[in-house]
Amino acid sequence: MKTVRVNLGARSYDIRIGRSGPAEPLHVFPKTAKVLIVTDTNVDALYGEACEQAWRAAGAAAARAVLPAGETAKTLANLEVLYERAAEHGLDRASLVVALGGGVVGDVAGFMAATYMRGIGFWQIPTTLLAMVDSSVGGKTGVNLKQGKNLVGAFHQPLGVVADVSALTTLPERDYVSGLAEVAKYGVIRDADLLETLAAGADRLKARDPVFLEDAIARCCEIKADVVANDERESGLRELLNFGHTMGHALEQADGYTRWRHGEAVAMGMVYAARLSAAETGLPEKDVRRLEELLALLGLPTAPGPEVHGVDWETLRVAMGSDKKSRGQKPRFVLAERLGQARVGCDVSESVMRRVYGEWMGS
Ligand code: GLY
Q1: 37, 211, 225, 357: most buried, per Cβ within 10 A?
Q2: Against a cut of 0.85, is the pTM above it?
Q3: Is the pLDDT confidence value at 308 over 90?
Q4: In angstroms, rounded to a whole number, what is the distance separating the alpha carbons of residues 230 and 322?
């Protein structure tokens, strides 16, 4: 088991990363009177009972609230269901919410914990790779409106995170591979050696080797913990975590979040951002190719290809301009100066954005 500390003063917490088993205190929780475990139908069937048992072992009267699986569950309506379930179960300010699942469950349950009785404690128990390396850490919580994703939310740090790598054995292949895009992202923004490790260990990654995964996830969490500790509320540095997300979100939004998994869109967005970087910050072309080759090796798409038909440049351009990090419809990119080092808040001229897009689509 590995432990990564997120240093945020009084709101500091540990991320425990490991494999469940009798030898590891992975699922050992603090003594608590009442707990509401929020999960979804898929995860509940696999891990709901075991999670409840683990909290009972900590003396908690634990109950479960089960949301429908999928992004469409991130609604204000589901929050109301959760608040009522919490009140029925008698949760008070000393009680805990536990988010057991992927990013959707973590975001909704986290926001519910941030607002129920003006805020109670919560734990994150991520069961997807994406949630283990990204959404469960750092305290972003929220729900979607029909006008856009995550438009209502709060920063609310968990009291602890438990990433049980064993849970990845049951993750559908496409979701697992999609999560690898966020893993590679950490290499681009902070750790070129991680990219080498991923390339050299691609077979072990594809086989979901738990030892390899434990190390890789811990490294991603170390990087995220450091970024969040230095810019919890995203006034600058934290935007690094959005490398590849400007085009990635635009691709997702342009087809109504139907075609691409988030990580697939981010993989393509990282290639676009790397190509922009070559034009703007001097990222060597060979490093752009290295990144493209790694993503392809991991089974990720590197360009939208024919699937983007029906979505023109203007649609993507408008979608990039409506990103939360944009200013006055002008997208601001995270660009790599070299592999392992990136810069936030980069303006790119319309002509360069367009030219690089054309070259990318033609490749
Ligand atoms: N997922 C990006 C962040 O946590 O800031």
Answers
A1: 37
A2: yes
A3: no
A4: 26
